[in-house]
Each structure stands twice: as structure tokens, then as C-alpha cells.
Write a structure and sequence with these properties.
It is a single chain. With 401 residues, the protein is of the alpha/beta class. The protein folds into 2 domains: 239 residues, Rossmann fold (3-Layer(aba) Sandwich); 134 residues, Glycogen Phosphorylase B (Rossmann fold, 3-Layer(aba) Sandwich), CATH 3.40.50. It is 38% helix and 13% strand.
Length: 401
Amino acid sequence: MKILIAWELGHGLGHITQLQPFIEGFISKGYDVHLVASELHNIRNFFDIDKIQFYQSPVSFRPPIIEKNKPTISWPDFCLSIYQEDSSLIGIVKSWESLFKLIKPDLVIFDQSPSCMIASLNHHFLKWIIGTPFSIPRADFLPFGAYPIVSDINKNTDKFLEKENLFLQKVNSLLEELKLHQINKLNSLFEQMDKTFLSIIPEFDVYGIRQEVDYLSFPPQPKIKNLFNFNWPDNFDNKIFFYLQPFPGCETFLAALEEIHLYAVIYSSSLKEEFQKKFKKHIFVDSAVDMNFVYQTAEVIIHLGGPNVGSKCILNGIPQIVFPSTVDHTLSTISLNKLGPVAIMKQNQSREYYIEKLKNIKPKIGLPIKKSSFNSSLLNGEAYLENVENLLNDFSIKKDI
């Protein structure tokens, strides 16, 4: 039994976090696992590399086209920003076709892989999809794929329909060139799935609770080899952890933290030494840290809005400062703000903006707050692991029959 896991777009731990229990479960049952991943540079820290076949995901090396002050408004709009040229998209789809022929999968699991979904339309292997509301639109939410961050959606349907039709035309032009059946709606890409999984709890779905999907709950912290263990510095008055990917204005924010005598342990794998030297009062770490230790001891966690970090903060009653960096993170921040204490800050703001915000937050640091009323297993990953185990057991039984 061959399992192909397709992770085309996105980066960071979020994808590995939701895929790792599936991959380990399939391996434990003796299946032949093939991971086609967006990122491979840290893969050995998460998996036994002798037990999985690895491939680099087909990708377009052109950066997405995102117009300034025009945020991505829908899933079709997101796809159009990624697949700008027909020649690029057809090359990516043909690459997936080649991987299908090479691997001959019995089951394909899609994680933010639109081009792989297009390539799979003409195939009859089992198909599962996993993701968040950003990558899996709600079928009955119209216009299709619209992100509920845009005000007055119903009054601006024309721009949503324009994006939907443009991407549908692009997909059908490609299918016509490949001599394959065309589709009459973009939702056909999702309707081909045998199972649809969201790696969140129902209350976290910005589209509202859906009946047609399985909510796995939040995944656990990923198992990572060679974790860096740290202790909070004695000269820190507060235990602040910053899970940082550089964003516009982050230097200004770090300077504002220092100015009001708030210092952080900052984890980032992509900060240059010159950047770090500007902020000598913060502690920079470029190796993955034990996040369970952070969740147990931190008084504030600063991050970019990822649902996995956010859910663990809610579980442990840790106040969050969130800088949503993408539409995906903006959507999850909307849900986080409903479930726990979250201070949302804008990127690329002035020093005065950040200082004013931080001065309002500083007196509250370290004060006890009410922890989440949700069952802890839904947030700490226990329910996720149980759900995945049950899925794979059921899959094995049906395979043997």
C-alpha cells in the first residue's frame, strides 16, 4: 500500500505538525510512505529518513503577485497570485503527473496543494485533504472561496466572481491542453475528495461549523530531534517568548520592547547576525526550542497568528501578542480572539504605535488569567492523535477487506 503525501505551498512547522501523526501512523502499519514536501531542509529533525521516500514539491519560483494594499480576498485569488503564468502551472501539474506514474499511490493526502488537486482530477486513487479554513473553503459559503475578512462580501460579489472565473478559466485551459475533462466549478477540486479534515476544533472555523468535514482538533507539538533547551535569563523581569519570522516593522517593534524594558527570548531560523547585533538585550535562538517548556513557563508569547501556537497559548492561559502575517494567520487570529486573551498588532507601524500598545500591556504581564474552558485534549493534541489513530485503523480494516 503506497501513500503519497503532497505538501506544495506554505512553510514552517504548521504543515509538519499536522502531517507527522499521519506519517508515523502509516509507517507503523508498514505502509510505503512518500512525502512530497515544500520544505526539505529540516526534514531529518522530524522523521526517520530511512523509512520515508522524500521528494521536493513541484513549485513555481516566481514570487506571488500581491498588490500593495490589496489583500488576498479569496481562495481563487490566492491561487491566481501563485500560478501567474499558464506555462508555469502546466509544468507543475505535469510534474505531479510524473510523480503519480512513478509512485503509483493508493492514497494521496493533500496539504495546501492546489496544483496537485488539479493533476489528480483524472485519477481514481483514494483522496484525503487536510488543512485549515484558509486552504479548504466552505462549499456553501458564497461567493466560493471568499475569505470572511472582507467587509460587505454580499455587496461586492462582482470582484469575487471575477477572481473565481479567472482561475476556473485557467484550470480549464490547462485541462483542455492536457486533453482532460474540464470542470464547471472550482469546488469540483474539493468534491473529488473521499475525506476532508480540518486540523482545528469546530469553534475555530471562521466559516461556522460544517457538517461535511471531520474536525480533528488541534495537533500536538511535533516531535523534534535535537531541541535547544534554555533557561530564562535572570535579568529578565518578565518571561516573554517571541516566535519570529521577519515581518515589516519587526525591528521597530523590537526596539520599542527594549525602550520600555521588556526583553524576549526570540526564536527564528532566518535572522542574520547583523540583525541580531542591533538588539543586544534580547536573546536570539536559531535552533528549535522545547515549546512545551515555553508553554509551561512563559508569561507572554508573541507570534504571527499560527493556529497551533495560538491554541496552546489558550490551553495554558498565556496572553498572546499577535502580528498576523498572512491571510491564513489573519483568519486564525479572528478565531483566537474569540477564545482567549489576544492583543492584535499591525505590522509596519511607527515606534510610537508600538510603545503605546506595549505600555497598555506591560502592567498586565504576569497576572493570572482564566484558562480555556475547552476540554484540554482538544487543544493539547491528545484528541488529534486519537482521531488520526482511529482513522488509520479504519483505513487498514477497509484495506484488508
